[in-house]
Amino acid sequence: MSMDSGHPLTRGNDRLLANYKASHFRWSVTDRVATLTLDRPEKKNPLTFESYAELRDLFRALQHASDVKAVVITGSGGNFCSGGDVHEIIGPLTKLDMPGLLTFTRMTGDVVKAMRACPQPVVAAIDGICAGAGSLLALASDIRFATARSKTAFLFVKVGLAGADMGACALLPRVIGQGRASELLYTGRSLGGEEALAWGFLNRVCTPEDLLSQAQTFARELAHGPTFAHAMTKKCLHQEWDMGIDEAIEAEAQAQAICMQTRDFHRAYEAFVAKTRPVFEGD
Description:
2-enoyl-CoA Hydratase, Chain A, domain 1, 11 helices, 2 domains, Lyase 2-enoyl-coa Hydratase, Chain  A, domain 2
């Protein structure tokens, strides 16, 4: 079985992704915002070896995309993602040797690495089931909107595996705290929408009818903001986990000095003087 989609994104130098033709999910770009829709509703949008690889390649390619300034990731049919497909992933994994298993687990982790490394803010729009690898796609996003009926479960323990998967033990405690993360990773229980909001896992709870539009509206506001500065913020949020406070302050001094050289910074000043709203271009 192939662990690599072999898609030309991994080979080419294309910087425009508006016309990208996805093979394992739906992809569209409108007004600087890409919407990535996991689209296997009959199975609650599970992932396969091939879709993992395509997600990895696409998020890597976003590092060089000039026409996408924010990304919304969602699922179709009233669910986000049920995790790895039982028949197409779980079954075959029971037959792989250790090198094969490690190749797979490293590939799934590479999806999260690529999501964290791309400069665009990623907004997850979560409805219904968000489980296993799906919960990690949500966790790896920068912002999470969901519905009250959403159910997020880091359910690896339910299939006899550690909660340590795709960076969960590093990411989840930073979002909701060590104790709450430990509870979810040890038990695999579902986190409902309202509880997830109270715990800080979610940024906003929406109605099912408004979920995607609110996520896209939020992403569009980011996409029309100072996107170079947004990318710098994302990089600092990610890199400063491993820094002491003095090192972080120095890193931010350098980052802000770089941002002060951008045209967007000058546009903001000129708009303030003219008492108008700045129009940012991301340069």
